[in-house]
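Re: beginner question about structure tokens

> Can someone show what the tokenized structure looks like for a real chain? I only ever see the sequence side.

Sure, here's an example I had lying around. Input first:
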Amino acid sequence: MKNLKGVLVVFILILSGSGYLYSQPKAFNLSTRIQFFTFTETSEIKLPVFQIGPLNLKITSTLFAGDLTIEFYDSKGEKQGNFSIANQAILPKPDSIKRPLNETVRGEITRNFENPGKGEWMVKLIPKNASGFLEINSTQDAK
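And the corresponding structure tokens:
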């Protein structure tokens, strides 16, 4: 029994000395991917920010059809950025060609915030008959 207590004490000292018991995460990563089809309703995606430290936000959208405007807001509701993407090419009508033509448009925005403020940030999607994918990646480093 004495040996077991001694082993436990040594094990706890090793763990606490290595910082294992008291360590804080150095970074928090969150990734979301959404697929949508002929999307027309405005939507909101909540993004939790719960550490004090820089926030890196990367939003990528791939469209097969339509237009999409993306806005993002901080925890106070203040707009921190936006971008829009839409199909670019003027393609011939499908009746006039033998094979249908398809266009894919990809847009991306990356923003870094030194002091983002804790709370729920929001990504707002404003689509117009949009079909495609949306990816939101955030990394928050602990200070």
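Each token stands for a local structural state, so reading them left to right follows the chain. Helices lie at 2-17.
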